[in-house]
Amino acid sequence: MMNNSRALTKATAIIIAVIVIIAAVGAGVYFAYFYSAAPSTQPPTAPAGIKIGLLTHLTGSVSPTGQDMLRAFQLAVEEINEQGGVYVKEFNKKLPFIPIIEDQQSDQQKTIDAANRLVNQHKVDIIVGGFGSAFIYAAQPIIAQSQTPYIITGVSTPRVVTRTDIDTSWFVLYQAVGPEHGASIALILAEAVKPVVAPNRNLKVAVIYQDSPFGQDFFLGINQTTINRNLPLTFVYVGKFKVGTTDFHALLSQAAAAKPDVIVPIGFIAETINAIQQGVNDLGLKKIWGPVCTCVDDVTYYKNLGKAGDYSLMQTYYGPYSSHPSVREKVQNFVKKFKERWGVLPGSQGISVYDAVYIAAKAIELAGTLDKTKIRDTLRSMTIDQLTIAVPNGKIHFGEKGQQTFEIYGVQLRWNETLKELRPVIIWPSNMKEANFQVPPDFQPGE
User: Fold this and answer.
1) What confidence tier does 156 reach under pLDDT thresholds 50, 70, 90?
2) Across residues 2-13, what is the average pLDDT?
3) Which one of 3.40.50.2300, 3.90.215.10, 3.90.550.10, 3.40.50.2000 gives the CATH number of domain 179-316+417-428?
């Protein structure tokens, strides 16, 4: 009996031990599974930085504008990185911008190639800049296919955000569009020039424009505004020229034969300078020139156009020697930093890119991630205060249309004999003007 009792006790102990072991193993498996399945509280591994791409012209005929864009881009990136970069909630830290620059080379196919390298070789997180409506329009399909957010600055055609052959949700346009620029040209002529030059008749206008989406949209704005508002303007001549044209003698001779009061050339810097200099110096056309495109508002224009540009007109949203009153202090600070860094003054395309870098930073910060879809959506939905360019209501908001317009004003350029360069005076609109429009002393009217 005693032996049976001992055997039972030993068997019971063995059973209990086995149960304990099984329970322990089971608990270990459970806790191992539980903790492996539980989400980690550690943020994901952060990349070395945020790859921000710039499309610009470093070589070719458009390089003066491109260099201005490059300098402004580098300045903005440096400023943001000096503050530690952009805070990205996903990684719970600030990340520096890694700038990646590609040269458009003043050529459409080269622009396509540059865009391809940005999105497929460098795999940038976001793109800013770009100059030339036809160039960027041609490069858009590659960027859209890569699903990379792009803040376009140097394009004035709204087609880059309204075209239907690609997904344009990846693009926002930080620029007054061509029709708006054209509208301001028509209004400057009707409200500032016509009352002085032709008080008792319509102002006679000749327009020569670059045959590209850029030039076409400008003329569309001029023409539509004149018709819709019944402005006292008569277009006596309209001509076109190809991108990169250097000889305007024949086109200007045809325009002169129509006996205009005003000749409005719409092109890039080199094209505009050539047109005005050839008209004034070679053909002796004593007309009013402009308003020309804001895209030429650069230090090289004021310097290189020379005396031929005296009394000429320009419509602009910013210039190295003028600015909108609502952002004047910000602009002065920007110009000071730009000149200290580069030894030259910024132009209108440079300041657009400068703002675009800060817009990109804000979109990434608000998105809280480098997920491109979320950055794209944030770009469209966010509302932030205006930066260095004056915008309507003082707020930047791209919205569903993906466009942000600017406040535009008109200037007349006068020759400064001391500086040996041209300088602008604001003449329009009336609530901003610093002086009235002045008729050139040797002006020959169309009649």
Assistant:
1) confident
2) 48
3) 3.40.50.2300
